[in-house]
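>> Question from a student workshop board

For tomorrow's exercise we were told to take the sequence and the ligand below, predict the bound structure, and bring the output to class. My setup keeps failing. Could a helper post the expected result so I can at least see what it should look like? The ligand is flavin-adenine dinucleotide.
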Amino acid sequence: MERGEYPGAKNMFGGMMAYCPAPEELVPGFWDQAPWERAVIKRVLSVAGEGSSTSLVFQAHSDSTLRPAGAGSTSDRTLTAFTLFRPFFDRWYAEQAVARGVTLLTSCRADGLVIRDGMVRGIRISGDSVEAPLVIACDGTLSFLAQEAGLHTGFRPDQVALGVRALYHLTEEEINERFGLLGREGATQEFLGCTEGIRGGGFIYTQTETLSVGLVLHLDSIKSRSIPPYELLERFVASSQVASLLRGARLMEYSAHLLPEAGMRVVPKLCAAGLLVAGDAAGFCYTNGLTQEGMNLAMTSGLIAAQAGAAALAEGDFSARKLARYREKLKKSFVLRDLATFSRAIDFLHHDRLFAVYPRVVSALMEDLYRSDGTPKEKIGKLGRRAIKDEVTMRQLLADLFQGGRAFLW
Ligand SMILES: Cc1cc2nc3c(=O)[nH]c(=O)nc-3n(C[C@H](O)[C@H](O)[C@H](O)COP(=O)(O)OP(=O)(O)OC[C@H]3O[C@@H](n4cnc5c(N)ncnc54)[C@H](O)[C@@H]3O)c2cc1C
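>> Workshop helper replied:
Here is what the output should look like for this input. Compare the format with yours to find the bug.
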């Protein structure tokens, strides 16, 4: 059931989805057929300072000239992510389900749950009720259905982020030339230090003939500053590192959406008698600083919820105790395991210094390393001490390094 005119009509995301094997279990050859835009083989992480930026580039070796229309232009699909548009992708995926016997109701909003004798029995739509042995709530970040069932009380501002995205048109050739791509190869670029001290980051994703340019900003951090998100996005778009890529591009669309951003801490109880919660509604979305992952978690948790539902149907038992196997299966899958692996990283990414101070420090250090002004050069240790002077104390730096190490290294 979807409140939009068709699946995907109301969905918004940055633009890139990590390769996900889950749908291949349902639709053989899924990624060969799905309407994606580009197969991402090049990922750039840029730390932006005031006068310079420093980037790390990952590029999977490409055989795209051999298989330009194949599913993923590298020979290793697990290194590939896909850029896509939700209105095309979600609609096509739903059509596959309909072709296999699913009934799809669109322009149909669930107003609430039907709860009887302590068990969810269905949903309410415009005063009517539709009864079902099991409801799977995947109604997005705010999930009023999960809240109504008492599974969670809603997210706090420090647990969600606001994503703002602008879509720009360029020709396929212009995008290939500017990002050094061939055929259907894609590139993404993530930015740290481009949000004027607000916790968050920027991104550029390449689609076939468009670029998604946006920011993901922690809601509590924006609230504490007086810069409206769209203004921050305009400044990001006008910055020299982005403006050069957008030369002559035409703005097509602007959108904004909330996403969960607090990892395991916001994962609610995942089931009640007659109800399971999946996707963003269950808080399955995070960034580890390198990528934003949400769609692959939503699709995989949806599949696991359906499998748990089918097992409950076979046994005729939709009690909370029986449905608890959903959480057990999720715990064994990458969905809950990745959230657990990166739980410290997610906390670490709530430190203001990471977005305001360290990008400046990295830029100052790199500028000193590359500066040639006719004076004798110094070793990197001395330049490093100069770069952090007046920015962060040695004690704070060591504490941050320790926490960063615990978050990402061990
Ligand atoms: C700016 C931004 C950038 C992002 N970038 C990425 C990225 O690059 N990669 C990535 O993997 N993830 C990204 N995400 C996260 C990703 O979008 C989500 O994790 C994913 O969309 C979750 O899917 P979902 O189906 O659970 O929820 P949603 O996509 O929110 O879908 C919920 C659906 O439920 C419908 N609905 C809601 N309430 C009702 C109701 N009462 N009745 C009927 N229908 C209802 C909505 O219309 C919608 O179709 C990003 C998110 C944002 C906001």
